[in-house]
């Protein structure tokens, strides 16, 4: 069993993967208030004893899931680091919105929406979710600043624009995946890229082909 404060750092990768996938499904099915180790085990082929061995508490299991969820999108954004500012910004927004057909994207969105309701009163949840949101804000602001300096973006405020993009993608992902409002998600996705075309791109600069309006 891990002796880390959160009960997660020393867990073997295979066991951690088993846990986070089971927690994701259990959160989506039961919510955090109804979550128990027994219900997590029911979403896995492993026994309840397996989860007790690796994680001391229900909270430790959820912390492991949050680390997985936030690391996943952080890695997907990091993959864009070498792209030009225009491609990077559009692709980052696309990845933040997520794929409504991707079961993992959907599962994460549903589970995180559930945990957000508890983050106000749970310091460890709040710290991890806030750190993730701040990291994404910094990443978006950096690419916007780079694009402004390169002359491919208008002279927009990087921080304010990054905040707008983050809150738009966060809210859309929640509505589309957690609530199943596909029509809302499709509409916002279209308008968000239209916003980038009209407000962010400098005159004469075209969006990446895959995001261009038909």
From TrEMBL:
The keyword Membrane does not apply. It comes from the Archaea. GO terms for molecular function: DNA binding. Keywords: DNA-binding, Repressor, Transcription, Transcription regulation. Residues 36-55 bind DNA. InterPro entries: BetI_C, Homeodomain-like_sf, HTH_TetR, Tet_transcr_reg_TetR-rel_C_sf. Residues 13-73 form the HTH tetR-type domain. SUPFAM superfamilies: Homeodomain-like, Tetracyclin repressor-like, C-terminal domain. Pfam families: TetR_C_6 (PF13977), TetR_N (PF00440). This is TetR family transcriptional regulator C-terminal domain-containing protein. It comes from Salinirubellus salinus.
